[in-house]
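wait is this the right file?? whatever heres the structure
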């Protein structure tokens, strides 16, 4: 069992507090990434989708995803661990620092290639809230009427850090 922390950063222009809509532990937010089999190294051709409301009974407890490797048939599980996520602030963004969003307890598989989908929220430094932000195109460009300034999210980056 290895715990991986999903870390993200981005360039935020006149924006702060980038996070999944409803917060990092929003039960309906979908996290998309690929899985590498810990046995044979096969990578899933497509992203898997993880969501807190997807609960699968497994062994004596439950998990959020059970994935059988197409190549070697070994089964892997991914369980989400809540309470660790923090919004990406403008200051972190300016320094190129990453913020944790979610922790994944992975057994038999390794997460990689996180995809930024839709359903994000962010606010301008003037306090204007932007909901339902779609980052699947890699960028978000808007205009903050209240602050009378352009706002932008760009240069999205993500990694999975092993928690010791
Ligand atoms: Zn395999």
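ok assuming it is, sequence goes like this
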């Amino acid at each position: 069992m290895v715990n991986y922390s999903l870390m993200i950063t981005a360039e935020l222009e006149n924006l702060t507090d980038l996070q999944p809509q409803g917060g990092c532990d929003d039960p309906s937010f979908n996290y998309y990434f690929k899985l590498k089999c810990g046995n044979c190294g096969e990578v899933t051709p497509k992203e898997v989708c993880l969501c807190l409301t997807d609960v699968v009974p497994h062994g004596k407890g439950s998990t959020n995803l059970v994935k059988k490797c197409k190549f070697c048939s070994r089964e892997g599980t991914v369980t989400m661990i809540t309470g660790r996520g923090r919004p990406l602030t403008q200051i972190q963004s300016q320094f190129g620092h990453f913020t944790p969003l979610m922790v994944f307890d992975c057994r038999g598989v390794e997460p990689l290639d996180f995809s930024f989908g839709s359903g994000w929220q962010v606010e301008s430094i003037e306090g204007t809230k932007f909901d339902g932000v779609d980052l699947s195109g890699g960028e978000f460009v808007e205009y903050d009427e209240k602050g009378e300034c352009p706002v932008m999210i760009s240069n999205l980056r993500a990694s999975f850090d092993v928690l010791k």
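The radius of gyration is 17 Å. so i think its the right one actually
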